[in-house]
Write a structure and sequence with these properties.
Rossmann fold; 5-stranded parallel beta sheet; alpha/beta; Met_Synthase/Corrinoid; single chain; Cbl-bd_cap; 210 residues; 2 domains; globular; cobalamin binding
């Protein structure tokens, strides 16, 4: 039964079927399956396939967002079980992510957050137009391992430098992205640990630096 549940969960995420995903997540809970297995071998496995398809341009942003929504709905069902049982969800690391102050663009950052969740990361998404001090406070509050900051306009890119300077003393790793952001900017100007041009690259980059 558990193999069938995992296969159905993977299929539901790949096909962006929210109701199917919730139905089989609940079946997994009812069967007493470890939440870690439901997340990693079912939901995350499907999200990984979605990421691969997105990277190859086989599917597009709306499909990714729908798959991410399906996964998030399932996580809402699983969180009370985790709290009740004290079971570890098998998260790789905790990531604080946001769009920098002065920048209201959010879709790309949301996709990155969803892809990270789908690949085993605990994500604290602060939203958009977030000042440096809020990044610092979120790291302290969540005991985060990684900070990710997106800048979608060249005028807001300097905020990434300020974030780096503020969080570096806290001992966290950092990753930066956004349309005008480049590897050279992150390496030479910001001093960050990683650069990601898209959501799939963000997952791979974080897997390498944690």
């Amino acid at each position: 039964m558990s193999d069938e549940i995992l296969a159905k969960l993977k299929e539901a995420i790949e096909t962006q079927d929210i109701e199917m995903a919730k139905e089989w997540t609940q079946k997994g809970i009812d069967e007493g399956m470890p939440v870690k297995d439901i997340i990693q071998e079912g939901l995350a496995s499907g999200m990984e396939k979605v990421g691969d398809q997105f990277e190859k341009a086989e599917i597009y942003l709306p499909e990714v967002m729908m798959a991410a929504d399906a996964m998030e709905e399932c996580m809402e069902l699983l969180r009370p079980v985790l709290e009740e049982t004290g079971e570890e969800s098998g998260q790789k690391a905790t990531v604080v992510i946001a769009t920098v102050e002065g920048d209201i663009h959010e879709i790309g950052k949301k996709v990155v957050a969803s892809m990270l969740r789908g690949n085993g990361y605990e994500v604290v998404d602060l939203g958009r137009d977030i000042p440096v001090d809020d990044f610092v406070q979120a790291v302290k509050d969540s005991d985060a391992d990684i900070v990710g900051a997106s800048a979608l306009m060249s005028t807001t890119m300097p905020e990434q430098k300020r974030i780096q300077q503020a969080v570096e003393p806290l001992g966290v790793k950092t990753i930066y992205g956004g349309a005008p952001v480049t590897q050279e900017w992150v390496d030479e100007d910001v001093g960050g640990n990683a650069y990601a041009p898209n959501a799939a690259a963000a997952v791979k980059a974080l897997d390498e630096i944690i």
